[in-house]
Amino acid sequence: MEFKKICISGLGYIGLPTASMFATNGVQVLGVDTNPGIIEILNSGGIHIHEPGLGEVVAEAVESGNLRVAGTPEPADAFIIAVPTPFFEHDLGEYEGQVYKKADMRMVTSAAQAIVPHLRKGSLVVLESTSPPRTTVDLLVPILEGSGLKAGVDFYVAYSPERVLPGQILRELVENARVIGGLTPESAQAGSDLYATFVRGEIHMTDATTAEMVKLMENTYRDVNIAIANEFSRLAERFGVDVWEAIQLSSLHPRVKILSPGPGVGGHCISVDPWFFVESAPDLSRLIQRARQVNDAQPEFVMSLVHKALGPDLTGRKIAALGLAYKPDVDDLRESPAVEVVHLLTKAGAVVKAFEPFKPDAKIAGVQLVPTLAQAVADADALLLLVNHTEFHQMNVEVIMTLTPARVLIDTVNGWARMDWVREGFELFRLGVGK
Fold first, then answer.
1. In the CATH hierarchy, which top-level class contains the domain 215-296?
2. Exactly one of 269, 318, 327, 353 is catalytic; which is it?
3. Which CATH code is given to the segment(s) 5-85+101-214?
4. Tens of pLDDT along 302-312?
5. What is the distance between the alpha carbons of residues 412 and 398, in angstroms, rounded to a whole number?
6. What superfamily would CATH give domain 298-430?
7. Which of 186, 323, 386, 435 has a CA-to-CA distance to 344 between 20 and 30 Å?
């Protein structure tokens, strides 16, 4: 199939790069977002997210005339839905006394409803938003058939999950293998034709529900493996072991690769996707649910480390929290465990100044952010490393000594070389170290 015009709903971390890739490969693209602020920023030549190289690609796409942005869809040959799928804040599910989080699919529903007036015979609709199994079949298709057209007969429907790493999105959109799940084999082929516009990795076709499950399996696998690493960190502290040394030695085994523990799991993938399995089949996903509970509880374990370093009463203690992103060297704060740790510290009475170098102007309710490292550490009693940003990992000990009176360090990510700091009189507490 040939696609001359594409309409992409949702201009976030996936939608905007995807729109730009299509546009720079000669396709007319209308990017749609319901946030007027995002539309204003993009129309003024800026971008609202941090991703290496994205600003240049978006500028090229706009200058070519192939990328426009607006608040509502228009008729197109293909429609891509790439809106967020967060949790409901207060609407929780329960199965046999165990509580689980439920997906909020309202943005997917709204995006699909907005497409309906513009559907025509031969159109393709692709859902990219990470979703519970059977969302394409049970939620998306009935909405689209409100057009009076029959899905799989009059128009094509497919599910194609993004599988990219923040910080490398542009490269991985092109190079990574792509999974296209069609409502019918013909729909899968239409989706394959669409993404072949710029994807150079292998394109694999399957059915829609399998594609949905593939995405969830990938991130659930990671979540479960991080959970065991986090439990190892707790066990190591109990038994007087350095978990980082134990992990290094265990991973010498040719069939063992243990991931790194930390303050928890964040982002809008690994910390979210496993709950979609639990919601859809709570009776069959007990291990997945337990892993989620372990990782969600890790900020409390960090609090025990802070108490170990500063004592049982944190009232008035001044703490510089370094890093709020969910992973190193990105600006994405979604579901970040570092933010949860700061909230817990504040609730315990500590005076926290947080510094996030990739998003120094972020606004987070209940969190005091400062724009520079110097301001964060200036009068601190302790420095708390929550994210292993390169800037923090490579901090110069002698320089830090001139910026802060603090001589207590709390490292939750094994980012600081112990002897470099201890040699200069610092006391270093590391997560998962019971020695």
1. mainly alpha
2. 269
3. 3.40.50.720
4. 999 999 999 99
5. 21
6. NAD(P)-binding Rossmann-like Domain (3.40.50.720)
7. 435
Nearest residue to 332 via CA among 50, 18, 67, 14 = 50
The whole-angstrom separation of Cα 338 and Cα 344 is 10
Residue-wise pLDDT for 117-132, tens only, equals 999 999 999 999 999 9
SS3 151: strand
Mean pLDDT across the stretch 374-401? 96
> Confidence band (pLDDT; 50, 70, 90) for 232?
very high
**H or E segment and range at residue 56:** helix 54-63
Dihedrals phi, psi of 8, to nearest 5 degrees: -115, 120
Q: What is the mean pLDDT of the chain?
A: 95
Pairing outcome for strands 351-355 and 318-322: parallel
Look at residue 98 and give its three-state secondary structure.
strand
pLDDT digits (tens, 9 = 90+) for 65-80: 999 999 999 999 999 9
- Residue 100, beta-bridge partner list: 93
* Phi, psi values for residue 83, rounded to 5°: -90, 160
Tell me how far apart the alpha carbons of residues 106 and 11 are, in angstroms, rounded to a whole number.
16
Q: Are the beta carbons of 294 and 226 closer than 8 angstroms?
A: no
Query: Any idea what DSSP says for residue 423?
Result: T
Contact, 416 vs 410, CB < 8 A? Answer: no
Q: How far apart are CA 184 and CA 206, in angstroms?
A: 9
At 167, the pLDDT band (50, 70, 90 cuts) reads confident
Active site residue 215: yes
State the first-to-last Cα distance of the chain, in angstroms, to the nearest integer.
63
How far is the C-alpha of 292 from the C-alpha of 294, rounded, in Å? 5
**Nearby residues of 269 by Cβ (< 8 Å), 6 or more positions away:** 130, 219
286-296 helix and 273-280 helix, angle to the nearest 10 degrees: 140
Comma-separated ranges of CATH 1.10.1040.10 domains in the chain:
215-296
Domain with CATH 3.40.50.720 in the chain: 5-85+101-214, 298-430
- Point out the catalytic residue in the list 101, 121, 150, 215: 215
Q: For residues 393 and 205, is the Cβ–Cβ distance under 8 A? A: no
SS3 call for 428: strand
What is the model's pLDDT at position 264?
96
Element (H, E) at 87: strand 87-95
Per the CB < 8 A criterion, the answer to whether 30 and 71 are in contact is: no
Cβ atoms of 163 and 143 within 8 Å: the answer is: no
Q: State how far Cα 101 lies from the chain centre.
A: 17
Answer whether residue 267 shows pLDDT above 90. Answer: no
